[in-house]
Amino acid sequence: MTADDGFERALETVLRDLRAQCSVRPDVREPEDDYPGLMLYAPDGSGQGVYGVGIAEVADGVQDWAVEALWAEGESAVWPECPAHPDSHPLSATLVEGVAVWVCPKEGEVPVCPIGELPPRDSNG
After folding, report:
1. Does residue 121 lie in a domain region?
2. Quick check: is 22 in a domain?
3. Pair type for strands 27-29 and 38-41
4. 114/14 Cα distance (integer angstroms)
5. What is the model's pTM?
6. Is 57 in contact with 72 (CB distance < 8 Å)?
7. 3-class DSSP assignment, residue 101
8. Residue 27 · residue 34 · CB < 8 Å
9. Is 122 a member of any domain?
10. Across the beta sheet with 47-50, what order do the strands follow?
11. 120 domain-assigned
């Protein structure tokens, strides 16, 4: 079974944020079995399945993958980094008024930005 179009669109939305602010890029592949999602492979060859029915759910899976991949590369395992609390904790994916957004878990349900719209990471910071 392959991933459906809605899932693939959700994954591409989340991958925009990954490309904007994460140094590790996944090798996205179809699974070898009947898993309904896609597989994300890290540079070290480890893989993780990702699936979800909405953007926030897919973002949770990609975030789990990114944290593990960053840790394996010896980098800070925080993605996406909270802009209000640098070097502290990642943002959380959730729905606010029907929109998939990244929020600071310390600030409650106040959106930082819609998922898929993280600005590029400052290369000087």
Report:
1. no
2. yes
3. antiparallel
4. 10
5. 0.87
6. no
7. strand
8. no
9. no
10. 27-29, 38-41, 47-50
11. no
CB 113 within 8 A of CB 17: no
d(CA 44, CA 69) in angstroms, rounded, equals 8
Around Cβ 74, how many Cβ atoms within 10 Å? 7
Quickly count: other Cβ atoms within 10 Å of residue 70's Cβ.
18
For residue 42, the enclosing domain spans 5-114
* Alpha helices per DSSP H over the chain: 5-21, 55-72
Which of 73, 74, 72, 58 lies closest to 18, judged by CA? 58
**Which pLDDT score, from 0 to 100, does residue 12 have?**
94
The Cα 120–Cα 97 span in angstroms is 25
What's the N-to-C CA distance of the chain in angstroms? 42
pLDDT (tens, 9 = 90+) of the chain, 125 residues, equals: 345 788 889 999 999 999 999 999 999 999 888 888 899 999 999 999 998 889 999 999 999 999 999 999 999 999 999 999 988 899 999 999 999 999 999 987 789 999 999 999 875 44
Q: Considering its fold, how many domains does the chain have in total?
A: 1
